[in-house]
Amino acid sequence: MFKQLILLCALSMPLLSCAADAPFSGGITTDVLLSDYDKFNEQYKAFTPTAQDIALMQKLEGKELIVLFGTWCHDSEREVPRLIKLLDESKVQLASIEYVAVGYNKQDDAGIAKAHDLQYTPTFIVKQNGKELVRVIEKPTGSLAQDLTKGL
């Protein structure tokens, strides 16, 4: 019995170390994201939006925005800081914005990623009155501002 207990403990050790390395999952603010994640902060500082992109962001006035991303994801490290900078520079007034970080399994405890059928990170979803209007997945085909406002 003692040998089985020792074996069980030994086999559990890798699981504990993996759990400690799991990425953050859940709602997060831009302040925390930019202060606690160096790559996000570096990309934020390096990105300079064009005047055209800043003007395009005004089309998001009064819309809801959901940002699903991974703190571990290189596309998220590039695109999410660009979005934050675009929002900061344009000063557009959104109805709401929600930043949701997901784990490697692309899920969060609140089920927001699952409810929005998250497949790839990052995914930006523009809504109005709960209805999805625009979805930008991984990286934009044009600029992020162009893709976020396409058809609005």
Structure overview:
This is Thioredoxin domain-containing protein. InterPro entries: Thioredoxin-like_sf, Thioredoxin_domain. Residues 7-152 form the Thioredoxin domain. With 152 residues, the protein is of the alpha+beta class. It has one domain (22-148): Glutaredoxin (3-Layer(aba) Sandwich), CATH 3.40.30. It is 45% helix and 18% strand. The protein contains 7 helices and 5 strands; from the N terminus they run αβαααβαβαββα. The chain has helices spanning 2-21, 30-36, 38-46, 51-56, 74-90, 112-115, 144-148; strands at 26-27, 64-69, 96-101, 123-128, 131-137. A 5-stranded mixed β-sheet has the order 1-3-2-4-5. Helix 5 links the parallel strand 2 (64-69) and strand 3. Mean pLDDT is 89; it is low at 5-20.
Question: Notable features of this structure?
Answer:
Thioredoxin-like_sf; Thioredoxin_domain; single chain; Glutaredoxin; 152 residues; Thioredoxin domain-containing protein; signal
Structural class: alpha+beta
Helix percent reads 40-55%
Name of the CATH class: Alpha Beta
Number of domains: 1
Name of the CATH architecture: 3-Layer(aba) Sandwich
Poorly predicted ranges (pLDDT <50, ≥5 residues)? Answer: 5-20
Strand order of the largest sheet: 1-3-2-4-5
CATH fold topology: Glutaredoxin
CATH superfamily: Glutaredoxin
Element-level helix/strand string: HEHHHEHEHEEH
The count of helical stretches stands at: 7
Beta-strand content bin:
15-25%
How many strands in all?
5
Largest sheet: 5 strands, mixed
Protein name: Thioredoxin domain-containing protein
InterPro entries: Thioredoxin-like_sf, Thioredoxin_domain
Domain Thioredoxin: 7-152
Keywords: Signal
